[in-house]
Design brief:
By secondary structure, the protein is α/β, with parallel strands linked by helices. The protein has 3 domains: 1-61, Ubiquitin-like (UB roll) (Roll); 62-132, no CATH class; 147-187, no CATH class. The protein is built from 5 helices and 8 strands, in the order ββαββββαββααα. It has helices at residues 35-47, 107-118, 144-150, 156-162, 168-187; strands at residues 5-15, 21-31, 54-61, 65-67, 75-87, 92-104, 124-131, 134-138. The protein has a 4-stranded mixed β-sheet with strand order 3-1-2-8, with helices on one face. Strands 4-6-5-7 form a 4-stranded mixed β-sheet. The radius of gyration is 29 Å and the shape is extended. The protein starts with a strand and ends with a helix.
Amino acid sequence: MNTSWFQVKIKFQQVAEGDKVINVTEAYLFDAVSYTDAETRGYQYLANGRQDFQLFSITKMKLVEVFTQEVEEELWFKCRVQYIIFDEKTKTEKKTAVVMLMNAKDIKHAYESLKERLGSVEDYIISDINVTKILEVIPYEQTPEQILSQGNFKPVNEVVAAEPEPSNAALAEVEESLSEQAEDDSNSGF
């Protein structure tokens, strides 16, 4: 499945200190196949923790990679990386920019982690790292039923029920073979 990332923004009202009602905006990132899928997944996921909210924005984000790591603070950083490629025809260097997302506790940690992930395979420049307002990244997860429906899989109980019982003749043949093998072993000194 082709990965597409959608930023979903919601608004809701929250009671702050002093019984003052304030408007809150939150952003989440969903892996979805379409805007409709992102909207559906957004409502399903966010309805569990919120009583009354309005989903007001869905924006497709062009991300090449989303790196998730276990850290104490979950800040999400949008990282712009420029790969440097030498063009043999024109004898010039070309820069191709890509955007990646990474969680880290601060900008320094994001830079170091990104550098570690990219390694030294190609020439690149990390040209920009900005903190985002994304609170959580929700990857696409298929249920076991969805996975099974895509392949040629059957539940174990159906496979076991479909296997034929061995016939008496087949059982007798196996027993005879085992007894002959036992005789051969005793004659050969084992």
